[in-house]
Amino acid sequence: MASSTPGSLSRDAIYVAVVGPGDDATTEETDIAAEVGGLLAERGAILVCGGLGGVMAAACQGASGSGGLTVGLLPGRDRAAGNRYLSIVLPTGIGELRNGLVVGVCDAVIAIGGSWGTMSEIALALRTGKPTIVIRGWEVREPLRGLMTTFVSAASAREAVHKALEAVDRRA
Fold first, then answer.
1. Nearest CA-CA partner of 45 in 104, 139, 108, 90
2. pLDDT at residue 149 in the model
3. What CATH number is attached to the domain comprising 49?
4. Does any domain span residue 3?
5. Which of 8, 49, 55, 100 has the least CB density, counted as fewest CB within 10 Å?
6. CA–CA–CA angle 8, 132, 12 (5° rounding)
7. Which domain holds residue 127?
8. Residue 66 lies in a domain
9. 13 vs 61, 64, 131, 169, CA distance in Å?
10. How far is CA 148 from the centre of its chain?
């Protein structure tokens, strides 16, 4: 992994999107997200998300609790709508289309659980060749070809972070 200190804005820092359900997230999903966020921060990765509640807030809470940097790309125009654990709040004003921005600015995606918004982010990540790790969520198969090579399942937060950062290192 490229060197980066937690909370730094190094040009070679790794940006990892953490995506999943908002207010519908289960306690299990938010617990996993908080652990993922903390582990990403400990490894010096910058966490990117949609900036709202549920999995997004839990991941940001975990990252900020470990001294990490968090970036939220909000669907609306109101910065105050972002969760309180965001380091940087970017109101896009483009609604769900911001999912494309979340995926576009990251080096890898970790999806926790599943909602339709999460599915759209997984699809965009796979379409653009981003390493995509899923914990207890959607299973995506390409028609006629089977499981896509950039899509990987993980059984735990630690495994997901390891796989995501390893995949980014291999691509560098």
1. 108
2. 53
3. 3.40.50.450
4. no
5. 8
6. 25
7. 15-171
8. yes
9. 20, 16, 16, 11
10. 19
Give the integer Cα–Cα distance in Å for 130 and 167.
9
Residues β-bridged to residue 72? 49, 89
pLDDT of residue 150: 54
Decide: helix, strand or coil at residue 82: coil
- Summarised one tens digit per residue, pLDDT across range 77-131 is 999 999 999 999 999 999 999 999 999 999 999 999 989 999 999 999 999 999 9
pLDDT in tens, 132-172: 999 998 877 667 666 555 578 999 999 999 999 999 998 87
Q: How many domains does the chain have?
A: 1
168 neighbors 46 (Cβ within 8 angstroms): no
Residue 102 is assigned to a structural domain of this protein:
yes
